[in-house]
């Protein structure tokens, strides 16, 4: 095991968002999780950011599609040949 | 090609499209910010998708494929605002903005997790409004990330841009969103309310 195995808080800070987004490689995830297990401050930042992203995701509302739009699209598609119908 | 194959192909397309139309409408609305334009873009995208359905690779992500068509229809429709990209100053919006502000306001002293407490107090409409108010390059990426749960790679496919651009825009968009949400929380007295909560004995 080398020193490269251990992340500094600065390195952890740079990896935090990619870790939250599940965008790190497996070996990077291991190093991040090893750091979070021993660093209370980084673990606190991680928990805060994670809860914030979860809260935003749960509360965002999507514009509702007008019910007649789906019907109009379906009717248009029914009347249109597909690419392999030509 | 035998007729049964053609029918199956179009039926399968219809089924896949129906499954993503609601989400695609929300995406079109976030692009156009206008109901009539969103409807036009979605109708054009549906027709174009049917026309080019044979370019869809079975087993790949239909939603990402269709969203890319929606994106192209939007940019080709002339509905994009003819203006320079907004200049955004990030110097006063460091990463972990809300964490730092919450710590500065003493919200960690109350015992509860401040992020959870803040999000519980903010209304859905306030959060949606804050996201929709982001400049377009950050809004679109953030919308695909938060609402559609796309990965960086999928967002890059939808927007036809490098993954590094997605990462950069998403991270910056989040910083702007955090600043906007914190300002809303201050403006509506949420921060003061949380500060007033006593820590458990």
What is the secondary structure topology, with strand pairs?
The complex is a heterodimer of chains A (86) and B (201).
Chain A: H1 9-20, H2 26-38, H3 40-59, H4 67-78
Helix pairs in contact in A: 1-2, 1-3, 2-3
Chain B: H1 3-32, H2 35-51, H3 62-76, H4 97-104, H5 114-121, H6 124-132, H7 136-146, H8 152-159, H9 163-187, H10 190-195
Cα separation of the termini of chain A: 63 Å
Q: Largest interface by residue count?
A: A-B, 40 and 61 residues
Q: What's the tally of helices of chain B?
A: 10
Choose one word for the global shape of chain B. elongated
CATH topology of the largest domain in chain B: Arc Repressor Mutant, subunit A
Percent strand of chain B: under 5%
Range of helix content of chain B = 55-70%
Can you tell me the CATH superfamily of the largest domain in chain B? Answer: Winged helix-like DNA-binding domain superfamily/Winged helix DNA-binding domain
Q: What integer value in Å does the Rg of chain A equal?
A: 23 Å
Largest sheet of chain B: none
> What is the count of helical runs of chain A?
4
- Can you give the mean pLDDT of chain B? 87
Count of beta strands of chain B? 0
The proportion of residues forming helix of chain A, as a percent range, comes to 55-70%
- Average per-residue pLDDT of chain A, rounded, comes to 88
Characteristics of this structure?
heterodimer, A: 86 residues, mainly alpha, 66% helix, elongated, B: 201 residues, Rna Polymerase Sigma Factor, Chain: A, Arc Repressor Mutant, subunit A, 2 domains, 10 helices, 68% helix, disordered N terminus
Polypeptide structure, described:
The complex is a heterodimer of chains A (86) and B (201). Chain A has helices spanning 9-20, 26-38, 40-59, 67-78. With 86 residues, chain A is mainly alpha-helical. Chain A has one domain (3-78). The radius of gyration of chain A is 23 Å and the shape is elongated. With 201 residues, chain B is mainly α. Chain B has two domains: 3-76, Orthogonal Bundle (Rna Polymerase Sigma Factor, Chain: A); 97-195, Arc Repressor Mutant, subunit A, CATH 1.10.10. Helix content of chain B is 68%, strand content 0%. Chain B is built from ten helices and no strands. The longest helix of chain B is centred in the N-terminal third of the chain and has 30 residues, at 3-32. In chain B, 38% of the residues are buried. The interface between A and B is large, with 40 and 61 residues.
